[in-house]
Amino acid sequence: MKKNSILSKVYLVLIFFILYGPIFYLIFYSFNSGGTMYQFEGFTLNWYRELFQDTRLLTIVLNTVIIALLSATVSTILGVAGALAILYARKRRVKNTLLSLNNVLIVSPDVIIGASFLILFTMIGIKLGFISVLLAHIAFSVPIVVLMVLPKLEEMSESMIYAALDLGASRFDVLTKVILPYITPGIFAGFFMALTYSLDDFAVTFFVTGNGFTTLSVEIYSLARRGVSLNINALSALLFVFTMLLVVGYYFITKKSEKPRGMGVRQ
Amino acid sequence: MKNRSRNFYLIPYVIWIALFVIAPLFLVLYYSFFNIEGEFTLSNYQKFFTPVYLKMTFSSFWYAFLITLFTLLIAYPTAYLLTKTKHKQLWLLLIIVPSWINLLLKAYAFLGIFGTYGAANSILEVIGIGSQQILFTDFSFIFVSVYIFLPFMILPIFNALDELNPSLLYASSDLGASQWTTFTRVIFPLTLDGVKAGCQIVFIPALSLFMLTRLIAGNRVITLGTAIEQHFLVTQDWGMGSTIAVFLILAMVLIMIFTGTRKKGVL
Q: For the segment B109-150, what is each residue's pLDDT rounded down to a tens digit?
């Protein structure tokens, strides 16, 4: 039994090493003055300095953040409406159909979403660029918001709504003074997920972005295809810190509300 | 529910579904009947059933199968051992965190690690095997894919194991079952849903992630996703790309039915 537990510890340590090794490898070499990812010559912050002086890159970061904030906001509104629509659907069949349609974009591979949106935008005549990327991000973030908000709505007791109506609240009052405050944690979780989905997306953006407009993921891809450059390492170190902050923030948001059931891995 | 007023939340949500879920799917199907000159034809489907495309489809499935298999083989013991640890939720969170790091950055890290002078080759030198070409091989592609998908597989299996009633295990050992029998006859069958969910989450992206094949496997491995990207963005043959997309969607639907999980909205 004793031997077993040592063996299992070794296994887990190995798994954690494999999971985190590459990430810290990247960050470690971002401080390398040698300019390669295999020979550490000396400590430098030059790559970070270069990063902050690269105005093109800063513009791309700004684009990415704007797209993420806008798409998360709009998709949260749409998603809350969607969750309410599913909640209020009277027929079981309608409810299930809506739910299945909602999940289509979640299970679809990114290539399919990207390719089909590319066709869609070309057909409607939307110019590829900021608008098409924004619309695509809104579109694929809506279902995840619905999934985050719906459980909260379903656990809400109906008698609260009836009580409000009995006390003379209008339907609008019920929405803004009873329902929305109750599901706020779900809305925050949904907004947060939409934000990270948007920040992280590569494949869909890659399809629907034109020549002029780039987000960070697409930029990383084109840089990485050209080979190793330690700018990317510095960038990834910053993104790692940023992601950690987001995770911690999200952790506290969900922890405050209830069990962290929304803490899922991302596709 | 007695409120008789119309469910006006449906309006924005249904517009979203129509525009971004249903329309794109039909457009993909529609485009698959047109050749590169824009004539209506079935030739794309004819072309799909030629050896070139069938071989590509087969190899894509083979790679996805291998990736899923190896991910499962590594993930199951990990999930099992995690449920035995003291602060299991915290450890689980630490397993999930790497999945929040941008996928491209993780792939990029392996460009350094697997490179000619990278860490992997240094280790091989020290062991005495000597340096090898690792990058742009099947091995590197499968290794990096397994690395990326591991958290997605661990989470559902962990949840299934965590829900397992421990008294069943005591009952099994009281009735004289060995540890192995308990595993194969009690634990594994009861966690099959988690395994299925994990396989589904891994297999579909493994068929379609084109950026991994591009970055890690050079152009040696062509998956369905790579082929779609190639047709849409490089050769501009949207018809053929859509045809492959139709088959990818079919494959996806089959996998969903095959691994059919009853739980909705579990990512």
A: 888 888 877 788 788 888 877 777 887 888 889 999 999 999
The confidence band for B261, taking pLDDT boundaries of 50, 70 and 90, is low
Q: How far is CA B255 from CA A109, A163, B251, in A?
A: 13, 46, 6
CA nearest to A35 within chain B: B112
Closest CA to B112 of A207, A28, A8: A28
The answer to whether residue A30 neighbours chain B at the CB level (below 8 Å) is no
Q: What is the pLDDT of residue A265?
A: 47
Q: Is A113 an interface residue toward B (CB < 8 Å)?
A: yes
Q: Are A38 and B85 inside 8 Å of each other by CB?
A: no
Say whether A129 sits in a helix, a strand or coil.
coil
Q: pLDDT for A41-61, tens place per residue?
A: 888 888 888 888 888 888 999
The answer, yes or no, to whether residue B262 has pLDDT greater than 80, is no
Task: Calculate how close chain B gets to A130, using CA atoms only, in Å.
Answer: 17
Which residues in chain A touch residue B161, judged by CB atoms under 8 angstroms apart? none
**Per-residue model confidence as pLDDT tens digits over A183-205:** 998 898 899 889 888 988 999 99
Contacting A residues, span 184-223, partner chain B, CB-CB under 8 Å: 196, 200, 202-203, 206-207, 217, 220-221
Q: How confident is the model at residue A257 (pLDDT cuts 50, 70, 90)?
A: low
Decide if A23 and B109 are in contact by the 8 Å CB cutoff. yes
Q: Check if the beta carbon of residue A19 is closer than 8 Å to that of residue B150.
A: yes
Q: What does pTM read for this prediction?
A: 0.87
Interhelix angle B10-17/A55-88, rounded to 10 degrees, is 120
3-state DSSP percent of chain B in helix, strand and coil, to 5? 75, 0, 25
Nearest CA to CA, how far is A80 from chain B (Å)? 9
Q: Which of A132, A29, A23 is nearest to B102 (CA)?
A: A23
CB contact under 8 A, B264 and A99: yes
Is the CB of A125 inside 8 Å of chain B's CB atoms?
A: no
Contact B115, A228 (CB under 8 A): yes
**Residues 6 or more apart whose Cβ sits within 8 Å of residue A188:** A253
**pLDDT of A103 above 70:** yes
Which of A186, A179, A189 minimizes the C-alpha distance to A157? A179
| Interval A218-222 mean pLDDT | 89
- The reply to whether residue B82 touches residue A12, judged by beta carbons under 8 angstroms, is yes
C-alpha A14/C-alpha B24 separation (Å) is 43
For residue B211, the model assigns a pLDDT of 87
Tell me if chain A has a CB within 8 Å of the CB of B119: yes
Residue of B1, B3, B16 to mutate, interface with A, max A Cβ within 10 Å: B16
Report the complex ipTM. 0.86
3-state SS, A53-90, equals HCHHHHHHHHHHHHHHHHHHHHHHHHHHHHHHHHHHCC
